[in-house]
Amino acid sequence: MLEAVNKDDVATVTQLLKRGVEAKTTDREGNSLLILAAKEGSLKTVAVLLAARAQVDARNALGETALMLAALQGHLEVVRQLLVQGAQVNQLGEWTPLIYAAVKGNINVSRLLLAYGADINAAADNGVTALMMAAREGHRDLVSLLLANGADPNLKSDAGLTALAAARAIDRSDITELLNKAGAQ
Fold first, then answer.
1. Domains present along the chain, CATH in parentheses
2. What would the pLDDT profile of 22-52 be if each residue is shown by its tens digit?
3. With the CA atoms of 178, 126, 107 and 167 taken in that order, what torsion angle do they form, in degrees rounded to the nearest 10?
4. How many CB atoms lie within 10 A of CB 171?
5. Cut 0.90: pTM above it
């Protein structure tokens, strides 16, 4: 079953589910079939697994969900499908799907997560926010989107990092300028 999911072999996945293979099957790292399919952007396999009642918010050994990994990889339609099925958009005290999307600057995924109520200022367990991550990774357009939607430019991580400090650290004056205009100190 794991191989069929990894290859996005919908016919085999469907057949194995009909034969009684559990949708909650996991690999050695605790990745559920749904997590694996979402990470790969396998939209049809995700749909089949959700129809088979796969747990939409199941976590792997690292605490990651299908929504988090789909957001990280920028799989917009998979993210949409998971949200429609009730995936949690906010996991407080952990890295949220919005923070995952910010790592790679996935702006369309970020827009969708915000439309579904993602907390724009939610901080991970280390205090990092999506804005800090977008600034640190040099994603100017995402920084702009987050600021336009109310991201607080003055929040600090547990290590004292701000979005402004992150932008300065990578010498991104364009992002620094955006943050300054938004009142960053």
1. 1-88 (1.25.40.20), 91-185 (1.25.40.20)
2. 888 899 999 999 999 999 999 999 999 999 9
3. 30
4. 9
5. yes
